[in-house]
Amino acid sequence: MATKFAPNTVEELKELLKNDAKVKVAGVDVDGVLRGKYMSTEKFLSAVSGGGFGFCSVIFGWDMHDLVYPSELLISNRANGYRDLLARIDLATYRRIPWEGNVPFFLVSFLDPDTREPICADPRGVLKTVTERAAAKGYQCYAGCEYEYFQFKETPQSAADKKFTNLQPLTAGMHGYSLLRTQLNNTYFNDLFDETAKFEVPLEGHHTETGPGVYETALAYTSAMRMADNAQLFKYSAKSIGMQHGIIPSFMAKPWGNLPGCSGHIHVSLRDASGKPVFAVSESELKNGREGAANSETKFISKEAEWFLAGILDGLPDVMPALVPTINGYKRLVGGEAFWAPNAVTYGYDSRAASIRIICPPSVPAAATRFEVRVPGADMNPYFALSAIFALGLRGIEKKLSLSTPPISQLQPEDRKTGKVQMLPVSLEAATERMMRKGSVAREASVLGDDFVDHFGGTRQHEVKLWNEAVTNWEVERYLELA
User: Fold this and answer.
1) What is the side-by-side strand order in the sheet with 84-97?
2) What is the pLDDT of residue 178?
3) Backbone phi, then psi, for 160, in 5-degree steps?
4) CA 219 to CA 464: how far, in whole Å?
5) In the CATH scheme, what architecture does the domain 10-119 have?
6) In CA terms, which of 61, 121, 180, 314 is 20 to 30 Å from 447?
7) Which residues of the chain are in CATH 3.10.20.70 domains?
8) d(CA 335, CA 416)
9) Cβ neighbours of residue 163 under 8 Å, at least 6 residues apart?
């Protein structure tokens, strides 16, 4: 799905850029960080005509702080001298950045320069592969993302000077859905909504969430690739607009130990080739529910939807690093109704305590039937998270998987201890080990595949290694005197 005025030909592109001296381009690395640069318009047009341009592969060879990964990782290492990848410009992503003088902006995907195929860990390439696989089966993937994020009245420099401690929240107190708190920092609050709309990242909802300086923003539902692009660019927008107001919006999953964390909830559904919702039941089934439903909480979703749900639940523990990719993210998954951050393989009708929330009649019209995956935090890479969810769901349809557990409403707290309910990994280290093990669902070619698992898993092992070697303030305070 293209932006409103995206060019279809090189001639249209030349006309579009005739008054522009430069263009901004960017791709996405495995940590979900935009990596890009300005190009002269002349160079940009040449790259479009030539099928792409060279971009240093080191962006897949280092972490979010530019520390290089071990040389044995697949894509970028010392052995090949960090050679160039081929960056292919996606004209459908055209938009202009309103807070940067309306400079033209395009996203790129990264290809192997020899095969011209997507590299195994390029976020846009991974999602493209999954959505094309869905299209081959007659399905269109649709999604929506919601972000919760803390705001701090700080600049990057002031936060660094404070060594990232004692940061000042944008506002004080717990004020979810507050009409008062939005009047504080009103220009910033409204700029987030208005400027992103100009950037063609439309929002559906925007409000305060519980916690000091917390906002929640829901992005407008659209095709999966467009949704991932918009989710990625919303973070970029928020951080850019925040800098102009002396504010740091943080998408860290758990910046405060004693407060709820920040979610990155994902809504997903399928449509057939004609655009008809696949998860919806027929008109005749709306009255009494679908015959053969697994239970009373799935009677208003289609059989394909039930298989899709079973597929997500079956593979969820094996793809956790794709949903929760950071050390900090697992500290958010504490379970319980206080924080609504599920840490088990559960589902339920309109249940915010479950990992997968079924949203269907009678709470919404049948056409709006969808699943909300509540496991990811705001620190997710939206491309990998959507890829994993849709790949698992499509696997469930292909295998016609059955739901193996009852809904969360029929479970008891002790079921988590007896093994009746499968718990999710409690750390990035445990999650990475599970994803990378032989026989992992993530390794299946129809899910994420060996190449992705080996490379991305290696980057997560790097993250774990840095954490295990770190000496934290907590350790010094606890052990310095009394150990």
Assistant:
1) 34-40, 22-28, 103-111, 84-97, 53-56
2) 94
3) -65, -40
4) 31
5) Roll (3.10)
6) 61
7) 10-119
8) 11
9) none
What are the DSSP calls for 308-354, one per residue?
A: HHHHHHHHGGGGHHHHS-STTHHHH---STTTT---BS-EEET-TTS
Closest to 106 measured CA to CA, from 188, 20, 195, 190: 20
Quick check: helix, strand or coil at residue 11? helix
Q: Does domain 136-474 have CATH number 3.30.590.10?
A: yes
- The set of residues, in sequence order, having a beta carbon less than 8 Å from that of 182 and lying 6+ positions away, is 189, 207, 208
Write the pLDDT tens digit of every residue in 179-214: 999 999 999 999 999 999 999 999 999 999 999 999
Nearest 10 degrees: Cα torsion 291, 296, 299, 303? -80
Amino acid identity, residue 458?
A: G
In angstroms, the CA 334 to CA 357 distance is: 17
Q: Environment class of residue 377 by beta-carbon count within 10 Å: exposed (0-12), middle (13-18) or buried (19+)?
A: buried
Question: Which candidate, 1, 31, 41, places its Cα nearest to that of 200?
Answer: 1
Spatial contact of 314 and 404, defined as CB atoms under 8 Å apart: yes
Q: Cβ distance 321 to 456 under 8 Å?
A: yes
Identity of the amino acid at 231: A
Query: What parts of the chain have a pLDDT lower than 70?
Result: 1, 72, 74-79, 336-339
Residue 93: name the closest of 227, 266, 253, 258 by CA.
227
> Would strands 22-28 and 34-40 be described as parallel, antiparallel, or unpaired?
antiparallel
The per-residue DSSP string of 356-417 comes to EEEE-TTTS-GGG-EEEE---BTTS-HHHHHHHHHHHHHHHHHHTPPP-S--GGG--TTHHH
Count CB atoms within 10 A of the CB of residue 194.
14
Q: Which residue in this structure is represented by tokens 């960056």?
A: 87
As annotated, the residues of the chain forming the CATH 3.30.590.10 domain(s) are 136-474
Q: How is 94-154 classified by DSSP, letter by letter?
A: EEEEGGGTTEEEEEEEEE-TTT-SBPTT-HHHHHHHHHHHHHHTTEEEEEEEEEEEEEES-
Burial of residue 173, with CB atoms counted within 10 A of its CB: 0-12 exposed, 13-18 middle, 19 or more buried: exposed
Task: State pTM to two decimals.
Answer: 0.96
Question: Which amino acid, residue 463?
Answer: E
Measured between alpha carbons, how far apart are the two ends of the chain, in Å? 59
Model pLDDT, residue 337 = 52
CA 49 to chain centre: 31
Beta-carbon contacts of residue 444 (< 8 Å; ≥ 6 apart): 395
What digits encode the pLDDT tens for the residues 390-446? 999 999 999 999 998 999 999 988 888 888 899 999 999 999 999 999 999 999 999
Which token pair is 454? 């080996």
The residues facing 28 across adjacent strands are 34
